[in-house]
Amino acid sequence: MEKKRRKFTQCPNCGYTFEEVNNFCPNCGQENHDLNVPVKHLIAEFFEGTIHFDTKAWHTLKYLITRPGLLTEKFNMGQRASYVPPFRLYVFVSLIFFTVLALRSHSSVTVATEEEAQKKLEEVDPTIAAGIRTADSLRSVSEIRSADSLATAAATQLLPGNEQEGFRKELMAKFAKFTKDEEHSKQKLLKNVSFMMFVLMPFFGLILYLFYRKQRRNYVEHLMFSIHFHTFFFIAVILGLAVEYFYRKFDVDEWTFWVALIYLFFALHRVYKQSYLRTFFMLIPISFVYLISVAVLMLATVGISIMMS
């Protein structure tokens, strides 16, 4: 939809005399559009632009959900003006996705009592738990007058005999801290997972690039496929969580896995122009490598989150 402009005859910024076809000043680049009009015109213009954007967003989401691979195909063919740009769409949907996860995580947090935290710590590492119990008992000793001396005594109880043992104890202590403050830990983990997903997106594009290298496509084409796929994945999870909210027995994980797998199959078939049978045999190793990559990155993300505690 072409924007309706109320044009100047002369640029108010630099004085350049416009020709009829000039939508922007050739001299300074300012838009040839007069905004000094009644408010009702500005309101009408705002709603016109909003409706146009909503129409573009609606068509983009509709094709993304119902026509696997179509947006990637159109992007690679250069048909881009009618749809929301892939990366902008990903950012918008991912913001909603992680907001929903944060709200869900916050609502499910249970605050553990001190006894429960101590019991959990004993299951993880009895040595650290014993040290903490010793430190607690030292509070009642009259010789220890200050918090500093108490901390020193507790640290002495946990002092390792060598560097390897020290690293293990430090790691377990961080793990105990990570599991104790559940709400803070979930928020930190969620933040790191969002970054992990952002890293995973170009990595999946690289996986596709390697598996379809004989087609001699540019990496950007595979990256666009990855962006659209992960955007759909976020939408599928959001829809699954919405169903789970009303029907508690609904299995979001199973729903997401099968929907994403089926979607990936049809998207690969459309974009890479192979038979259904050939696409199926490509889907198996691609999915396997992708899931292994997700598992490794997730473990790394959890480890980093624990070490940052």
TrEMBL record:
A Pfam family: DUF3667
Keywords (A to Z) from UniProt: Membrane, Transmembrane, Transmembrane helix
TM annotation in the entry: 87-105, 193-211, 223-243, 255-272, 279-308
Database matches in InterPro entries: DUF3667
Protein name listed in UniProt: DUF3667 domain-containing protein
